[in-house]
From TrEMBL:
Active site: 151 (proton donor/acceptor)
Domain SMP-30/Gluconolactonase/LRE-like region, first and last residues per copy: 3-211
Name of the protein this chain belongs to: Regucalcin
InterPro entries given in the database record: 6-blade_b-propeller_TolB-like, Regucalcin, SGL, SMP-30
Cofactor note: Binds 1 divalent metal cation per subunit.
Assigned EC number: 3.1.1.17
Species the sequence originates in: Phalacrocorax carbo (Great cormorant)
Family: Belongs to the SMP-30/CGR1 family.
Length: 246
């Protein structure tokens, strides 16, 4: 492809939708065919999509950021958060985003959780499932120094959030009601980037990591950097992904 693929979602009608560069696009896997649905941030040629996920009603939420000069170093406040609706229309929720990242919804579908990485915060919004509108933004957890930068995020069946900590070498479990950290799982790499549940019953956690920007000395100390890790025995399960309804 001609641009980085930053997120992939299942599509109710079959195959996938993806975020590609600054485009929402349809992917037909067997045909190896990608068609553009719509483009965003047309006035910002240095931008690209980052994380994206489908909401419980089948809308595709995804946000943008400026291309990085080096990892976590970029022109700030260039990104926005968007939703692709099932009729293939797009709404922009807000702009001034640094690195649009982890996102998920509460089990009762009344809260939307979101991370703008360089805010060092996990935020919550009131969420209207009927319309897909979000408002009343607030911070529910501020990362501690050793946790570093919040990146990808997912929710478990107990309604607790799991956040991968970039440069923190860990995944943390948070209670969004109390704002308390409940658990820390450390990994053998620093640059943990995202997490999701998988496996037959969604009891396994998969964690991605990065090696970008690491020199030879760093890579010799962390040879598994850039790998995907599986964590078992957490005692909780994840929520299956929602397919895009369009």
């Amino acid at each position: 492809l001609d641009a980085p693929v930053s997120s992939v979602a299942l599509r109710k009608s079959g195959d996938y939708v993806i975020t590609l560069g600054t485009r929402f696009a349809a992917l037909k896997w067997k045909e190896q065919l990608v068609t553009t649905i719509t483009q965003v941030d047309k006035d910002k040629p240095n931008n690209r999509f980052n994380d994206g996920k489908v909401d419980p009603a089948g809308r595709y939420f995804a946000g943008t950021m400026a291309e990085e000069i080096r990892p976590a170093v970029l022109e700030r406040h260039q990104g926005s958060l968007y939703t692709l609706f099932s009729d293939l229309s797009v709404v922009k929720h807000f702009d001034q985003v640094d690195i649009s990242n982890g996102l998920d919804w509460s089990l009762d579908h009344k809260t939307f959780f979101y991370i703008d990485s360089l805010s060092y915060s996990v935020d919550a919004f009131d969420y209207d499932l009927q319309t897909g509108k979000i408002d009343n933004r607030r911070s529910i957890y501020r990362l501690e120094k050793e946790e570093s930068i919040p990146d990808g995020m997912c929710i478990d069946t107990e309604g607790k959030l799991w956040v991968a900590c970039y440069d923190g070498g860990r995944v943390i479990r948070l209670d969004p009601e109390t704002g308390k950290r409940l658990q820390t799982v450390k990994l053998p790499v620093d640059k943990t980037t995202s997490c999701c549940f998988g496996g037959k019953d969604y009891s396994e956690m998969y964690v991605t990591s990065a090696s970008d920007g690491m020199d030879k000395e760093w890579l010799s100390r962390q040879p598994q950097a850039g790998g995907v890790f599986k964590i078992t025995g957490l005692g909780v399960k994840g929520v299956p992904p929602y397919p895009f309804a369009g």
